[in-house]
Amino acid sequence: MDQVIQNLHMNGGTGETSYAFNSSVQKKAFYKTKPLIEEAALDIFSKFYACSSATMTGKSMPIGIADLGCSSGPNTLLLFSYLLNTIYDKCREFDSVSPEIKQRSFGPCFAARIPGTFYDRLVPRDTLHFVHCSYSLHWLSQVPPEIENNNQGNIYISNLVHLVYQILFNPLKLKSWLRHCCPPSMIDAHLKQFTSDFTGFLKCRSGELVMGGRMVLTFLGRASVDPTSDEGCSFWGILALGLKDMVLEGMIEEQKLISFNIPHYMTSTEEVSMVIQCEGSFKIDQIEVFKVNWDSSEDENSEVDSYKAANCIRAVSESLLMSRFGIGEEIINKLFHRYMEIVDNVPKEKAKYTNIVISLTKV
Ligand SMILES: C[S@@+](CC[C@H](N)C(=O)[O-])C[C@H]1O[C@@H](n2cnc3c(N)ncnc32)[C@H](O)[C@@H]1O
């Protein structure tokens, strides 16, 4: 497995910088996708549970559900509790279910944590009815091999927004920054890696899901067709700026920054649909785009809560940064303090994550 990926995990525990304490953006995204999850759950219920002869005769009919990349913290069991409640409520009101079954309790529920990457097969053939994966598929299986040492000090696809921030903070640095725009080969390399990874993901899930099984996938993505649009790049761009400042202050080795890239890709609805159509195992039922504020607030008028926005990125990237740069808590604190200062200058309307949710049926 790629070494960068081996070091990827969300911050553990329940402290101030833990993922558990800083995953309200992901929770908000989950709530926004509930209607699609409910539709898929009820479809599964009617296809595989309510009308099955096993259910009619009172025998249990197992339903397999997987939440891939569920991490730890309050979001981990959110999907299961919501799905079980939805199906349970439906089960009680469903006309075709006999009174005995209506009164029967829902039956035992068996849960398991499965180690391994979702870019490989995880469970036996035809055992799943519903797969959910939220805020995880934008993580690539590896940094695209073509871009090692070749990204000019950026850590992701970069754009000119970085330059604007740089001008705000230090006009003298502008000249050196003009060298730091993203070459088109970076964009191609990311898209190629995403296409290969997501195709592999679909093939694996197609083996594991029964025919007619459903998936709801939520990606951190972009609404624009342009991969360099600031909606997709700015939060990594801000981290790159902070890292560059740490280099200037002698806290991080420049060479390590030059060779560091985030194994991440923020896709678009067009790209995701194209991969699904080319792979061919799934039909697209619905696809939607929605935004969530960087600080997870609903308030459009107040300033961005830069502390919350910084801790959200810290909780997902700290493991990678510490292992890659060999830095400890003191430098990480300085880095994210700098991150906050930069976010304080980002207008609220720009400080939003774009999300893509897609609902699929195995055909
Ligand atoms: C931001 S968290 C999302 C957690 C949860 N789904 C939520 O919405 O709060 C991303 C999760 O994806 C996991 N992940 C990333 N790449 C993965 C892979 N290839 N296989 C399995 N899990 C992966 C990470 O370890 C992490 O737990």
From TrEMBL:
Name of the protein described by the UniProt record: Uncharacterized protein
Entry keyword ATP-binding: no
UniProt KW Repeat keyword: no
Entries under InterPro entries matching the protein: MeTrfase_7, MeTrfase_capping, SAM-dependent_MTases_sf
GO molecular function term, any single one: methyltransferase activity
Gene3D superfamilies linked to this entry: Methyltransferase, alpha-helical capping domain, Vaccinia Virus protein VP39
Keyword terms: Magnesium, Metal-binding
Cross-referenced Pfam families: Methyltransf_7
